[in-house]
Amino acid sequence: MRDIAKGRRLFFISALFMVLLNFPVLSIFNSGATVSGVPVLYLYLTVVWLVCIVAIAFFINRQDPRKQKK
């Protein structure tokens, strides 16, 4: 049962990040503006990519509270 819940969470995270990296959302950040000399689109892609990796790692490595040893 735990694997099914983990799979659903990972699917939801994947779908969310597919939406965040899709054209309509990317076009919002595709401007000539820069933040500290870095184009906003590059900064957005880097931040979303890092958040995706951290979120997946968090949900994969998260311990089941019922299985923790006391």
From TrEMBL:
Q: Which residues cross the membrane?
A: 10-29, 41-60
Q: Does the keyword Membrane apply?
A: yes
Q: What is this protein called?
A: DUF3311 domain-containing protein
Domain of life from the UniProt record: Bacteria
Keywords, alphabetical: Membrane, Transmembrane, Transmembrane helix
